[in-house]
């Protein structure tokens, strides 16, 4: 009898542990953490995202383009050359371009203005690497996006409208998956709670181990337009910056994990 009880207890405990395991696998944040640890062990401490940061730093500091200039004088909102924590305050309005810009768009602006590249010469892969480098200097800082200027408020409102807009062949919008269906799953992944979970908007740009690529928020948003069956807005365009502004403002107060490592 004692043995039987013992077995039963072991079985119940075992099932309980399995349940916990299944739950952990459900949580993409925990799953990403596990993968990150595994990769770190295999690679002797170097993550793929570190390589992008390194490459981005080289690109940022090198004298390049027709003007043979580096990007070190680029102003990301805290003054030329000041990079620390800037990601937590983007997108924001810039007086020199008279536009609200996000990280990607600001990098592009400086490649054009400081280095003299023509827009069609700018390689997306370089912008992404530079974004990784700048993001790494905002790691563990606080997300603090707060639309105050009229131009920022206007774009925030556009972002909010786009977020709730339902359109396309499926008559869906961002909110269909990321508000209504939160907790349900898309294939293996649960839909992220973009407005409630402050972890979500504060880890971009990120390396996605599930497709082995470096993505900024713009890449993420464009892929989600494909989820909607709709054509994605162009890189550096107003809809992308507006949605980023809206989502980053929701994440105000979050501690940033940059660059992110996600599924
Ligand atoms: C059909 C469902 C669907 C729609 C509609 C959708 N998404 Fe997503 N979204 C997903 C899924 C699934 C993931 C996570 C899976 C992945 O990363 O592959 C995701 C991930 C994201 C993430 C990253 C979350 C994280 O944890 O880092 C952001 C940001 C995002 N979506 C924004 C948007 C925006 C903005 C829109 C509207 C333009 C949108 N999504 C529309 C399904 C959707």
What does this protein structure show overall?
The structure is a single chain. With 263 residues, this protein is mainly α. Helices cover 48% and strands 7% of the residues. It has helices at residues 2-26, 28-43, 48-61, 103-113, 124-136, 150-164, 174-180, 217-227, 238-250, and strands at residues 92-94, 99-101, 185-186, 189-190, 206-208, 213-215, 260-262. A 3-stranded mixed sheet has the order 6-5-7. The chain binds heme C. Heme C (HEC) is lined by residues 172, 174, 176-178, 186, 189, 191-192, 194, 200, 220-221, 224-225, 227-228, 243, 262-263. This is SoxAX cytochrome complex subunit A.
Number of domains: 3
The total beta strand count reads 7
Summed over residues and divided by their number, the pLDDT gives a mean of 89
Shape-level CATH architecture of the largest domain: Orthogonal Bundle
Helix and strand string, N-terminal first? HHHEEHHHHEEEEHHE
Task: Give the helices and strands, then pairings.
Layout (H helix, E strand, L loop, with lengths): L1 H25 L1 H16 L4 H14 L30 E3 L4 E3 L1 H11 L10 H13 L13 H15 L9 H7 L4 E2 L2 E2 L15 E3 L4 E3 L1 H11 L10 H13 L9 E3 L1
Parallel strand pairs: 5-7
Antiparallel strand pairs: 1-2, 3-4, 5-6
Helix pairs in contact: 3-5, 4-5, 6-9, 8-9
Bound molecules: heme C.
Organism: Meiothermus luteus
Enzyme class: transferase
GO biological process, one term: sulfur oxidation
């Amino acid at each position: 009898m004692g043995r039987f009880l013992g077995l039963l207890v072991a079985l119940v405990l075992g099932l309980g542990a399995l349940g916990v395991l299944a739950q952990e696998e459900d949580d993409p944040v925990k799953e990403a953490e596990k993968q990150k640890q595994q990769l770190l062990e295999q690679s002797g401490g170097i993550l793929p995202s570190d390589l992008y940061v390194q490459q981005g730093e080289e690109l940022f500091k090198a004298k390049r383009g027709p003007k043979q200039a580096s990007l070190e004088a680029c102003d990301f909102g805290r003054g030329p050359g000041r990079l620390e924590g800037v990601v937590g305050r983007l997108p924001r309005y810039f007086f020199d371009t008279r536009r609200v810009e996000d990280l990607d768009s600001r990098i592009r602006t400086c490649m054009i203005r400081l280095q003299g590249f023509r827009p069609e010469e700018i390689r997306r892969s370089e912008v992404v690497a530079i974004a990784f480098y700048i993001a790494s200097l905002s790691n563990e800082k606080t997300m603090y996006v707060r639309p105050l200027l009229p131009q920022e408020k206007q774009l925030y409102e556009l972002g909010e409208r786009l977020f709730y807009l339902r359109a396309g062949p499926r008559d869906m919008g961002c909110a269909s998956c990321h508000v209504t269906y939160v907790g349900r799953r898309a294939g293996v992944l649960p839909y992220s709670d973009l407005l409630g979970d402050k972890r979500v908007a504060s880890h971009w740009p990120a390396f996605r181990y599930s497709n082995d690529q470096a993505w900024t928020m713009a890449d993420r948003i464009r892929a989600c337009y494909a989820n909607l069956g709709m054509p994605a807005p162009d890189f550096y365009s107003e809809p992308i910056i507006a949605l980023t502004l809206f989502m980053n403002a929701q994440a105000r107060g979050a501690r940033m994990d940059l660059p992110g490592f996600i599924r």
